[in-house]
Amino acid sequence: MDVREPAVAGRFYTGDARTLAHEVQGWLAAAPGGTEQPAGIIVPHAGHIYSGPVAAFAYRRVHRTQRVVLAGPAHFVGVAGIAAPAASVWRTPLGEVAIDQTTIRDLPVTVDDYPHAPEHSLEVQLPFLQEQLEPGWQLLPLLVGRTDPLDVADVLEPFLADPDSLVVLSTDLSHYLPYAQACERGGGTGPPDVARALGGGARGGACGAYPLRGLLVAAERLDLPVELLDLRNSGDTAGPHDRVVGYGAFTVGL
Predict the structure, then answer these.
(1) Whether 164 contacts 67, CB under 8 Å
(2) Other beta carbons within 10 Å of 23
(3) Tens digits of per-residue pLDDT, 174-191?
(4) pLDDT tens across 6-34, in order?
(5) How far is CA 124 from CA 48, 62, 99, 197, 211, in A?
(6) For 186-200, b where at least 16 C-beta lie within 10 A, e where not — what string?
(7) Which of 21, 206, 247, 253 suits 47 as a labelling partner, its CA being 20 to 30 A distant?
(8) C-alpha to C-alpha distance for 163 and 153, rounded to whole angstroms
(9) In this prediction, what percent of the chain has a pLDDT beyond 70?
(10) Which residues pair with 170 in a beta bridge?
(11) What are 73-96's pLDDT values in tens digits?
């Protein structure tokens, strides 16, 4: 059995299982819930102390699924197209998650563990999924490089339309702007305007611009609305105001 060990436990989130579960449960408890299951969610991927309180707003809307399709950018290894892992299991301090290799074999993606090994954008989502979902679900992780959004949409659209799947799109929004400027661009506390919050990110301000563009195309094809749940930045959560990163939590298709 090929296992991907956690790459950023102890750095982006605590490596102690009990403390990690307590922190994630606290953020989830502080976020408002909802009864309807979305087709997908958009969540940030910084260190948990910065983006965890925002991500919890989206994860509180998740109740059940058989498959999580988790897509995000590769920060450390260049990816041509879309890359899925070869590993059969991903591990975190909270336990193991089975990878849906059966479905991966049918997708137009590269299978390569190398870009996944150091990457945090997907790994930091797993503790939220492990705490919020009942055991038994499988994970389909996808790292998206410089790719035509239509190609990304072709991969994600069937899962958005599948009631047994949940699409999780991992991206931060604006990067390293002064606090006031980040708020103006939709990366901080402000009016709940989805177009303002996501528009700049999809045009390139977000580190996950390529997967985000594809998700938005797929949602438009299926006529799925995108709802903004929370919009803050690192200056609102645990960081200074001079250079902030914007975070947003959204549902797709409620």
Answers:
(1) yes
(2) 18
(3) 755 656 666 665 544 444
(4) 999 999 999 999 999 999 999 999 999 98
(5) 7, 16, 16, 22, 17
(6) bbbeeeeeeebbbeb
(7) 253
(8) 17
(9) 85
(10) 43
(11) 998 898 989 999 999 999 999 999
Token readout for 22 is 């307590």
Judge whether 246 and 209 are in contact, CB under 8 Å.
no
Residue 222 tokens read as 């299926």
Structure-token match 């953020």, residue found = 27
Strands (E), 109-243: 110-111, 138-144, 165-170, 175-177, 226-233
Judged by DSSP in three states, 25 sits in helix
pLDDT value of position 187: 44
> Which pLDDT score, from 0 to 100, does residue 11 have?
97
Helix 17-30 / helix 48-59 crossing angle, nearest 10 deg = 50
User: Cα-atom radius of gyration of the chain, to the nearest Å?
Assistant: 16
| pTM, full prediction | 0.91
Residue listed under structure tokens 């006031």: 180
At residue 235, what is the residue type? Answer: G
